[in-house]
Amino acid sequence: MADIAVVVDPQGVVSDIVFGSADLLSDFSADWVGQRWLETVSPESRLDLEALLAESHTDGMTRWHQINHPSVRGIDIPIQYRALRLTENGAVVAIGRNLQGMTALQQQLVDAQQALERDYWRFRQVETRYRLLFRMVSEAILIIDAPTQRVVEANPAAGQLLGETPTRVIGRPFPEGFDPESTQAINGLLAGVRAAGRADDVRARLIDGVQEFLVAASLLRQENVTFLLVRLSPLLTGMSANVLPEAKTRYLRILENAPDCVVITDAEGRILTANSTFLSLAEIATEQQARGESLDRWLGRPGVDLNVLMGNLRQHATVRLFATMLRGEYGSTTEVEISAVAVRNGERPYFGFFIRDVGRRLSSEQPISPEQTRWLDQLTERVGRVPLKELVRESTDTIERLCIEAALKLTGDNRASAAELLGLSRQSLYVKIDRYGIVADHTPDAPAPEHKHLP
C-alpha cells in the first residue's frame, strides 16, 4: 500500500516498521525499532512530526505531512506521511510515500525555469542592443520578407532616404519608388541573392531622378523564415552633388574618371574612397569591396611599400614617383609609380595616392655610375692575383654598401624606412652604415627626394 509503514506506541517509540522497496531500506542503515520516532527525522521536520502525532490523537485520521529523514548518503529523503490511530490507548500507524522522484522532478522544473528566465533576459538584452544599433546606424537598412518582398523592418535612415517615416515603409512592397530600370536591377539583385546567397551591388535611382543609391543585399535565415537584408548607400550624384560648389563638383568628376588611379586613405592606410581606374587595376567590381581595406593588400611588397610611403608622408607630407607593383585580386601584376600627399584634417589626417600604370612605358637602363665602373674594372684586374674567396667577400661588401645607399636614396635618408625596405633591423642598418662610412646626402630638413627604381 505504501513505500514505508511505521507503527508507533503511545510514547512515540517505533514498535514496527516495513519498507516497500530494498532501495529505500538501504538508505536507512539504523534500525528504527525501539527508537523514538522524533530521533529518526531531520531537526527541521520535528515540529511537523509532532503536529502529525498530535493530530492523530485528536482526530484519528491525519492529513498528509512531509517529513525529511537523514540517509546514509548524507542527503535528506522526503517522505509524505498520513497517520491513523489504531486503538484507544494511542497506538498509531503511519504510511508514507517516497517523494524523491517528485523532488527530483520539481528541482528539474525549477532549474529549467531558471534557465528559461536567464535565456529570456539575455534575449531581451541582445534585442535591445540590436534595436539601438539598428536605429543609430547611419546607413539605410531594410529587412524584407524574401517570398513576398515586403518590408518587415526599416530604420530611420531608410525612411529619411526614401522620403517616408519608417512606420509607413513597413508592409510596402520593395522596390517601390524607383525608376523602371532601377526596379529591374534591384529585382535581379534580390533574385540572385535568393538563389545563390550573394550578388553584386547595383545602382538605383528614385523615380524622381534626384537621389541615386548603391543597393546591396544579403540573405538572412531565422528558423524556417528567410529574410533579405538590404542596404542603401547614397551616391554623390543628383541632390548630393548640387550641395557642392560647381568647381568642386568638376574636380570630383575628373578624379573619378581620371586615367590614373586615385585612392584616399585614413592615417592607418585603410581605403576611404577609390576611383574606377583603381578598381579596374585591382580587379574588384565595386568601391564598397575596397572601402575599409588596407591599401597594402594590393601593393607589391606587403608590409613594406605602404609603411615606407606612410613614413615619408608623415615626415615630408609628399612623395613622388615611388616605383612598385600593384597586384590584382585574380593574380595580375602591374608596374606602377605612386605619388602621394598628406592632408591635415585636424587630429585625423588622410592621405591621397595617385597611382600611374607604367607597365607599357619604354624602359631606359639606369646609367652606371663612375664608382660602379671603377669597381668592376678593379674586380676584373684582380682576378688571378687574389683568391676567389677574398674577391667574393669584397664583392659582397661592395654590393651590400650599394644596396644600402640605394635604399637610403629611395626613402629620402629615412633610416627606419630603409631598414624596413631592406629587411634589416634598425640597429643592424646603423652598424652597417658606420662600417661602410655612408654619409647622408640630405639633411633632416630637406624635402623628400623623388624615388626611383633600385639600381
Distance between the first and last residues' Cα: 105 Å
Biggest sheet, in brief? Answer: 5 strands, antiparallel
What's the overall geometry?
elongated
Encode the helix/strand succession as letters.
EEHHEEEHEEHHHEEEHHEEHHHEEEHHHH
Can you list the strand order of the major beta sheet?
2-1-5-4-3
CATH superfamily of the largest domain: PAS domain
Helix count, DSSP H or I runs of 4 or more residues: 15
Please indicate the count of domains: 4
Query: Share of helix among residues?
Result: 25-40%
Mean pLDDT: 79
Under the CATH scheme, the architecture of the largest domain is: 2-Layer Sandwich
What is the third-level CATH name, the topology of the largest domain? Beta-Lactamase
Radius of gyration: 43 Å
The fraction of residues assigned to DSSP E strands is 15-25%
Organism: Chromatium okenii
InterPro entries: Biofilm_reg_signaling, Homeodomain-like_sf, HTH_Fis, PAS, PAS-like_dom_sf, PAS_fold, Tscrpt_reg_PpsR-CrtJ
Protein name: Transcriptional regulator PpsR
GO molecular function: sequence-specific DNA binding
Question: Mind explaining what this structure looks like?
Answer:
With 455 residues, this protein is an alpha+beta fold. It folds into four domains: 4-98, 2-Layer Sandwich (Beta-Lactamase), CATH 3.30.450; 137-234, PAS domain (Beta-Lactamase, 2-Layer Sandwich); 246-357, PAS domain (Beta-Lactamase, 2-Layer Sandwich); 370-436, Arc Repressor Mutant, subunit A (Orthogonal Bundle). 39% of the residues lie in helices and 24% in strands. It is built from 15 helices and 15 strands. The strands form three sheets. The protein has a five-stranded antiparallel beta sheet. The chain has a five-stranded antiparallel beta sheet with strand order 7-6-10-9-8. A five-stranded antiparallel beta sheet has the order 12-11-15-14-13. Strand 11 and strand 12 (271-274) form a beta hairpin. Helix 11 runs antiparallel to helix 14 and helix 14 (415-422) packs across helix 15. Mean pLDDT is 79; it is low at 237-242 and 442-455.
